[in-house]
Amino acid sequence: MRPQYSGPPPERGLFCNRTLNMRAIKAVGYDMDYTLIHYRVEAWERRAYEYIRDRLVEQGWPVADLTFDPMLAIRGLIIDTAKGNLLKANRFGFVKKALHGSKAMDFDAQREAYNRTVIDLADRRWVFLNTLFSLSEACIYAQLVDRLDAGQLPGPMGYVDLYEHVRKNLDATHMQGRLKAEIIADPERYVIDDPETPLALLDQKSAGKKLLLITNSEWAYTEPMMHFAFDKHLPEGMTWRQLFDVVIVSARKPEFFTTRSTLFEVVEANGEALLRPHSGPLNRSKPYFGGSALELERHLGLSGDEILYVGDHMFGDVHVTKNVLRWRTALILRELEDEVRAIAAFRATEMRIGERMLKKERLEDESCQVRLELQRRRHQYGPRTDTLEGELVTRLAELRTETEALDAELGPMARAAGELSNPHWGLLTRAGNDKSHLARQVERYADIYTSRVSNFLFATPFVYLRSPRGSLPHDPSLPGGTPVFTTGDGAGSGPAE
């Protein structure tokens, strides 16, 4: 009897933008935070928020009553530092939803502010929320915009000045290390235990792939966190250090991938981590500080598409490695699991929306034809039917009534669709009926994307991941408007290589 293999739950799949043969990958590099180690987002971000707020209180700002709102921001939003707004844009850079501070902008105000605006992330005016670590920053900035508008903050100060002040205090919070010390002291409170992740890496290592850890976190944080997350799930006597061929901390990504920097060996002495300049081959038993991707490639004897890098930061992990080094890339989107489940739960309503939209399109098409017939009659040109003008006017009124009734039915369903996963912003990968700006970034720079590293378990180290055929507006459709060549929801489409 053949063994039966069950596939992963839909929300834990590996989603492919560009065909990737894992058998051709010789080395797999990993980020740590929100990649190999997943945090309880609300607990971490609430604590980070409280540290920023408390620093502001110490500086005399009247903000002690502010509290973290986990629904106010999601990954992939854009802060408009010039206007004090949180934005969700579609793949073309057009704004689809906006909050000024923490309050939704109405249609007219949003149109006036952004009708002629196309977001270009190269402009420093825009701050893209690349990672889950950005949520506390976006939340407190939005709330402070409300206070600034009410004249309750020290001044004079504009929205740009306010953002820079928030950013400075956030950086200071991380530099002081108090938050990380708190997490090291109580990791169960902040870390989601995933025993499958070490097994996935053991599979890859046993299949002959070199494993790399490249993290911006310092050694004093990396070592205890990796010990907590990995060692209890590894074979007896094995530690996380033995999994990796190269460990690099304080890597300064994205500069690690684009510039050259001195490489240091981390030397542990009397409970402290000291740095010693390093030259020559890398020793797998020693952790390193800094360095560069080019130096790492020389050590491995590998380059380009022989290396897969897995991380959660759209720019620092995925964009740069793809653009500069041509490494293969995998993006970790933990929120994807809730998103896929929400889409599945909404499927029946989505089908009803599709059916009613088809009916609405037929009514609109007939209405357009009737209006054109009336126009030609009144201006005496072109071919016309024998239908009486009064009958045409009556029919046009009937069509308008039917369309209004459909709109009344569609309205609540459309609003529900726009609030899936988050009442302000809806789905991560959608902006209205289009792909979100985040989804477009995923599509451009991530060869594959998935919710967690342990999803590689379902695929094995030998999988050949093939991208679906991309659909175009002129592709033939099935009943209900679904393209024959479907690519799935969100950022799951892309050309095969």
From TrEMBL:
Belongs to the 5'(3')-deoxyribonucleotidase family. It comes from Corallococcus soli. The keyword Magnesium applies. PANTHER family: 5'-NUCLEOTIDASE DOMAIN-CONTAINING, HAD-SUPERFAMILY HYDROLASE, SUBFAMILY IG, 5'-NUCLEOTIDASE. The keyword Magnesium applies. Gene3D superfamilies: HAD superfamily/HAD-like. This is HAD-IG family 5'-nucleotidase. InterPro entries: HAD-like_sf (IPR036412), HAD-SF_hydro_IG_5-nucl (IPR008380), HAD_sf (IPR023214), Pur_nucleotidase (IPR016695). Keywords: Hydrolase, Magnesium, Metal-binding. It comes from the Bacteria. Residues 474-497 are annotated as: Disordered. It holds the Pfam family 5_nucleotid.
